[in-house]
């Protein structure tokens, strides 16, 4: 196992979810950047946008992000694009996520390095999340509220002066929000009941928006005839997977049911798996360097 | 994370634990073999033997083992060696362990390939463990019972004809036991008591030798003023870490105490960590390919 430190993930959203050829030309441009690994692509025709996930070391991820921005500027034209989803640019949102060996500060530095380059390429850039330069610019919905249609006016507002790039808008490419945020984990718990209302009650109890656990979003669904508590864990430092699960198990028992099985959607960082094993085993310590595979390519022992 | 499949570990024991220069010349010879990673070296002056741990892909581990055997034959002379520990050769025991991506059958094949080469180099070789060619030759203590002093006689016994190599003994190098076995995990549970007798009672309840869990060896100790149940898990397929821990927790509660913390000694394979997280989270599945770091160097997604 190679753990080049620091590693980063980028999860850009771009404003094309229908035209398969444009989407694949844009994605391929990123895929061929040396050191970049494309981990996922999800295109949504209704929202007419795509979410690309790629990772690598800092300079590779920076190069991938700049390549993506150029490809979006060439392939897409927001003046003629329409979609349900709020957006303000062809490359709409570009969050960077710290992975193994990197910190949020590292991700903020990467976001700002990238933002400066995108600015010099003519994109008005708003920094958000951990990379924001003002508290009112931290939350993405606030940054994006004006949308493409309103961003021209917004650029004249001193409170919304872009962090990098022109204060004038190129109508074809629009503006971009570049940020840094923690890794998101989608974690679902299947209950031993087909009563979706039970899942909804549990979701309300555990999610932050209704006074539950911090950095936890939750909804109740019926999936394959089984009640499911679907969770988004937006900051595993504040609420790890195992704490979210303990809360769901407790609430389920309280409602006379139980968690039958769970699923992790997408990829989980090694650190999340190690934290989980350490918690349940009561281990005094468990780090990546205690995993045999990580040692096979590290400097030899002794 | 690179997972070249199959990966193997070798844990050879050689009959020198006092002479640091000889030990380092022998270890260095293995360390410089391309593709070999030395993970650990433990030398015991009292037993006058050393345990070397190294890993890599099949051909690299085979080359490392053959290099080690040659180095032991050059550096060591069993005719003039003495130690408390039962031994029958300069390279005394050579077990191969399947790691990520490899099976016990793969390890048996590697053990037999290595044994054939060591035989051609003039070492009488007894296969043991999963690589044994007869049931009475499976257990290492049986294979090694006669020791160096008795192996000359043993070589004349049809039941103990070596699997490879000469039936005559070179008194300087002796004979070697080459085998295949599962990965061993040393796992300790610290109890919330200073009464070592409680740890001893728990150890007796859970270990295989007194009717407890299969493939579990356990003893009770007092470590740092705290009662400790010290476990060797010799086959994690039969008794995983989490089952051993559940048994210790149950027995501890039954005796009015509890497990305060635990420790894994040495390195744990990724599969052991994944199995532990899957068990406690109730995950429908969790494999190496679901760990983000493994994907960074695998073929790209989609």
What is the number of strand segments of chain A?
11
From N to C, what is the helix and strand string of chain A? EEHEEHEHEHHEEHEEHEHH
> Low-confidence parts of chain A lasting 5 or more residues at pLDDT below 50?
298-302
Strand content of chain A: 15-25%
Strand and helix layout:
The structure is a homodimer of 302-residue chains.
Chain A: E1 7-10, E2 13-14, H1 20-31, E3 37-44, E4 49-57, H2 58-75, E5 91-98, H3 104-120, E6 125-129, H4 140-144, H5 147-154, E7 176-180, E8 185-191, H6 196-206, E9 216-223, E10 226-233, H7 241-254, E11 259-265, H8 270-281, H9 292-295
Parallel strand pairs in A: 5-7, 6-7
Antiparallel strand pairs in A: 1-4, 1-5, 2-4, 2-5, 3-4, 8-10, 8-11, 9-10
Helix pairs in contact in A: 1-2, 2-3, 6-7
Task: Tell me what the structure shows.
Two copies of one chain form a homodimer. With 302 residues, chain A is of the alpha+beta class. In chain A, 33% of the residues lie in helices and 24% in strands. Chain A contains nine helices and eleven strands. Chain A has helices spanning 20-31, 58-75, 104-120, 140-144, 147-154, 196-206, 241-254, 270-281, 292-295; strands at residues 7-10, 13-14, 37-44, 49-57, 91-98, 125-129, 176-180, 185-191, 216-223, 226-233, 259-265. In chain A, the strands form two sheets. In chain A, strands 1, 2, 3, 4, 5, 6 and 7 form a seven-stranded mixed sheet that branches. A four-stranded antiparallel sheet of chain A has the order 9-10-8-11. In chain A, a hairpin with a 4-residue loop joins strand 3 and strand 4 (49-57). Chain A is globular, with a radius of gyration of 21 Å. Mean pLDDT of chain A is 91; it is low at 298-302. At the A-B interface, strand 3, strand 4, helix 7, strand 11 and helix 8 of A face strand 3, strand 4, helix 7, strand 11 and helix 8 of B.
């Amino acid at each position: 196992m190679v753990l080049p430190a620091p590693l980063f993930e980028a999860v850009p959203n771009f404003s094309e979810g229908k035209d398969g050829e444009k989407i694949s030309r844009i994605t391929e441009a990123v895929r061929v950047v040396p050191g970049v690994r494309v981990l996922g692509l999800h295109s949504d025709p209704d929202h007419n946008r795509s979410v690309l996930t790629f990772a690598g070391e800092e300079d590779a991820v920076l190069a991938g992000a700049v390549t993506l921005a150029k490809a979006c500027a060439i392939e897409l034209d927001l003046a003629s694009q329409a979609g349900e989803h709020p957006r303000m640019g062809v490359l709409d949102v570009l969050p960077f996520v710290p992975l193994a060996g990197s910190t949020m500060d590292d991700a903020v530095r990467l976001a700002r390095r990238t933002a400066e380059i995108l600015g010099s390429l003519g994109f008005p850039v708003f920094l958000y999340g951990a990379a924001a330069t003002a508290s009112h610019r931290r939350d993405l919905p606030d940054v994006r509220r004006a949308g493409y249609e309103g961003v021209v006016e917004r650029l004249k507002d001193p409170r919304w002066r872009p962090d990098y790039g022109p204060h004038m808008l190129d109508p074809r490419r629009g503006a971009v929000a570049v940020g840094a945020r923690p890794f998101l984990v989608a974690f679902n718990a299947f209950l031993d009941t087909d009563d979706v209302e039970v899942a909804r009650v549990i979701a309300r109890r555990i999610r932050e928006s209704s006074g539950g656990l911090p950095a936890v979003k939750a909804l109740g669904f019926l999936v394959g005839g089984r009640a499911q508590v679907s969770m988004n864990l937006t900051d595993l430092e504040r609420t790890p997977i195992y704490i979210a699960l303990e809360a769901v198990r407790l609430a389920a028992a309280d409602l006379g049911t139980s968690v039958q099985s769970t699923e992790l959607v997408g990829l989980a960082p090694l650190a999340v798996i190690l934290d989980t094993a350490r918690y349940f085993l009561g281990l005094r310590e468990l780090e990546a360097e205690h995993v045999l595979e990580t040692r096979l390519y590290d400097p030899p022992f002794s």
